[in-house]
Amino acid sequence: MKKVVLCLVVALMSFSVFAQKAAYQKVTIQTNGVCENCKKRMMDQVPQWKGVKSCTYDVQTGKLEVTYDAALTSPETLRISVSKLGYDADTVKADAAARAQLPACCTKPKSQGGCGNHSGGCGGCGHHH
């Protein structure tokens, strides 16, 4: 009888372990993205990364918020991945080769005539709106 009870307890505990949801966390990463083109690039790429559940990007502030599974990735890994897209990510500088591949509008700061959020034209960034 004790063996049966013990087996049932072990079985129930193992089911509860499988039923637990991933422990999602959020991190906000400051980037130097400046336009809707930057946003599209991040929104297309970031959700495909291992451990990422979702993300949002605010063009006005350049902030990328990522919801991720802490068992599968980390904030530092996410920052490095953002840098490989060509953008600074907090203190991690953009990968120079990736940055060189970005459209001109994505590399101009808003203060220097970057295309902003594209709502009022883009100042000659070279792509169509």
With strands numbered from the N-terminus, the spatial order across the biggest sheet is 1-3-2
User: Biggest sheet: strands, sense, closure?
Assistant: 3 strands, antiparallel
**By helix and strand content, what is the structural category?**
alpha+beta
Fill in the CATH topology of the domain at 22-104.
Alpha-Beta Plaits
- Examine the secondary-structure arrangement and name the CATH architecture of the domain at 22-104: 2-Layer Sandwich
Give a count of the beta strands, DSSP E runs of length 2 or more: 3
**First-last Cα distance:** 73 Å
Q: How do the SSEs run, as a string of H and E?
A: HEHEEHH
Kindly provide the name of the CATH class of the domain at 22-104: Alpha Beta
- Silhouette: elongated
Catalogue the unreliable spans.
Answer: 116-124
**Radius of gyration over alpha carbons?**
21 Å
Average of pLDDT? 82
How large a portion of the residues is in β-strands, by DSSP E?
A: 15-25%
Number of DSSP helical runs: 4
Secondary structure: helix percent: 25-40%
Give a verbal description of the structure.
By secondary structure, the chain is α+β, with helices and mostly antiparallel strands. Helices cover 33% and strands 16% of the residues. It has helices at 2-19, 36-45, 75-83, 96-100; strands spanning 24-30, 52-58, 63-69. The radius of gyration is 21 Å and the shape is elongated.
